[in-house]
Specification:
Blueprint (H helix, E strand, L loop, with lengths): L6 E5 L4 H12 L3 E5 L3 H14 L2 E4 L7 H15 L4 E4 L15 H29 L2 E5 L2 H4 L7 H21 L5 E7 L16 H4 L5 H12 L9 E4 L6
Parallel strand pairs: 1-2, 1-4, 2-3, 4-5, 5-6, 6-7
Amino acid sequence: MGKPGRVLWVTGAGSGMGRAAAVAAGAGGRRVALSGRRAEALEEVAEAVRAAGGEALVVPLDVTDVAAIDAAHATIADAWGRVDDLVLSAGLNTPRRTWSDQRIDDFQAIVATNLTAVAAVVQASIEDLRAASGVVVVISSVAGWGFKPGTGIAYAASKTAVGVLCRDLNVAEWPNGVRATHLCPGDVDTDFLSMRPQVPDAEGREGMLSPDDVARAVLFALDAPSHVRIDELVITPTHLR
């Protein structure tokens, strides 16, 4: 399995699910462009990608800066000629998740990260994706698959909208060979849990998905034959209710 030599751009690559997906893709021989806000973390991931057998390019990026997204794409294209596939893993939430305590600036930042940035990275890469019959995997959430109380108003709304974005991309771009997957994991044991109102302890994390579990699902979508599209993929720990 795997598609050696294809250029994969991963956002949110510095930790968690994005990091795991990048390393797994590198192990399959892909060239992986790594974007995130923390350059030092990206350098560590780049070493892990290379150790796994892939090539890595560090492209620091704040995905809420649309102009920077265009510049990051240009950097990757200058280095490797193109972007074949995308894994969009950058995400944001806040412990303030109700109408009683949410702040509109938090709401806007969450939507900018979880939704607008996804559209902007796809838009910056769309010509490359068409040329490569590219695959876009958006790492979303079960909150984007079905209503899940407690995940936050802005978070749930932005993740639901990402599902619509993926469906529209599939309808509009299938004649050009572009495919999109709305990947919806349940509870995953990552640093993202620190954004919860009550952060789970070690016992509370038992049985959660691991980043590597999600990475395997990402590769399943990326490696699907060209006549197969994984429109939506939901993976959850068996304890999820």
